[in-house]
Amino acid sequence: MANDKTTDDDKAINDCLLIFITILLPPLGVGLMRGCNSDFWINFCLTLFFGLPGLIHAIYILIKEREKKLQEDRGIEEPPLNPDGYNTAPEKS
Predict the structure, then answer these.
(1) Residue 40, pLDDT above cutoff 90
(2) What is the number of other CB atoms lying within 10 angstroms of the CB of residue 49?
């Protein structure tokens, strides 16, 4: 049990540090969460040219990553996309 508590504390500390880094330097926070991909470059440009939209984008990415991790921990899978690209409820027969 004590080991689980330490793991939870470590996760909380990591989350707090990531939030702090994301607020100070949004592109760095996005880079740590998603790597150097399109989200990083979008955030870099938003932060460089506009400031506040970069922070909003970084917080959005942080929230989405956290939701994704919670779903993975609970074993919830995302429903597959329909051919038109939208998630819809299955049709009743």
Answers:
(1) yes
(2) 9
